[in-house]
Amino acid sequence: MNVLSQILAGSTGLALISVGVLEIFFHGDQRFYRIFLIRPEDVRAVRMWAMNVGAYNITFGLGIAVGLWLVNFSSTPASGSAIIIFCCACHVFLGFWLWVTEKRLLVSAIGQALFPALAIIFYVLLH
């Protein structure tokens, strides 16, 4: 896996872990309303979903980290590339799906899908 794809994937992993932490611990914080669109009266109702989505994001971020480690430090770098491509492809789809299900989150959807898509594109082009 080339360096550019690794940088984009690594940035994706860090973003996923960061957003996951926000979703788990701060989903009800109104300072993040633009990101989560959760009104104060809905915090209790969406708590379980926000906590689970946050855990999924952290898990995908850690998956990318493991993939990067395998690419750079193991005897099977292809397995690391496969993990990274899978995680990135999932988030390209999930970014699109976020926009399909909530049009007001277009910027978040682009943010979720752009770096993973670029990581895949540069992997394919420079592989």
From TrEMBL:
Keywords: Membrane, Transmembrane, Transmembrane helix
Keyword flag Transmembrane helix: yes
Highest taxon listed in the record's lineage: Bacteria
InterPro entries for the chain: DUF1304
Keyword Transmembrane listed: yes
TM regions (residue ranges): 6-28, 49-71, 77-98, 105-126
Name this protein carries in UniProt: DUF1304 domain-containing protein
